[in-house]
Amino acid sequence: MVKEQKSYKTKKNQKLTNEIIMEKLNYSFSRDAEWFKKTMIKIQSVKDELDKKFYTPEKKAQKFDFLKKLKSKLNDYKDAMKFSEKYRKIRFFERRKFERMLTKVKKEILATKEEDLETLNSLKEKKTKIESDINYVKYYPKSYKYYSLLPNHDKDNPETLKKVAKMRKKIEFYVNTIYNLS
After folding, report:
1. pTM
2. pLDDT tens digits, residue range 64-118?
3. CA dist., res. 175 & res. 97, Å (int)
């Protein structure tokens, strides 16, 4: 049993078979593919000529250095986003705790009599320490891992204590110079 080929009529009443249509399509496709290939070769040659004229090896090296720096900054930014999301709740809860402690100390200062200087001075010292803790939590850089001031475990780990002290000094310097809060 032989398949009958569908025939199509054109304006000139010519019968076109599937084979004839496929030949025409293949011809146009191959012609377009050759044209595309030739134009891509021309575009690439123009790009190469421009690179030779305007990009010296020094400029290429500068470009690669710039791209490396940009990539490292993007990685830092990704880290900052990751750390800011990760430690967001911890910082929020610590700040709230310290603010509550500050209000309690302020009430105690108002409640103490002026005659009792020792307790008044100790409460003022406590107040300044709590304020520095609040500044630590508020102004801790988001691009670094956050070290808690109220940890649940490893309270006496010397490495974390050193890192906290170092960051506390940086933050105090930052707050004192930029904001002039002290």
Report:
1. 0.58
2. 888 888 888 888 788 888 888 889 999 999 999 999 999 999 999 999 887 788 9
3. 21
Burial of 131 (0-12, 13-18, 19+ CB in 10 A): middle
Do residue 116 and residue 46 come from a single domain? no
- State the total domains in the chain: 2
Residues 78, 114, single domain; the answer is no
Among residues 125, 136, 138, the alpha carbon closest in space to that of 163 is found at 136
146 C-beta neighbours (distance < 10 Å), count: 19
Ordered DSSP codes for 30-83: HHHHHHHHHHHHHHHHHHHHHHHHH--HHHHHHHHHHHHHHHHHHHHHHHHHHH
Residues 93, 174, single domain; the answer is yes
Picking from 153, 151, 152, 175, the residue whose alpha carbon sits closest to that of residue 164 is 151
Give the residue carrying structure tokens 């690179």: 51
Answer yes or no: do 136 and 62 share one domain.
Answer: no
Nearest to 106 by CA among 132, 125, 127: 127
Q: Answer whether residue 144 is part of any domain.
A: yes
Number of other residues whose CB lies within 10 A of the CB of residue 126: 16
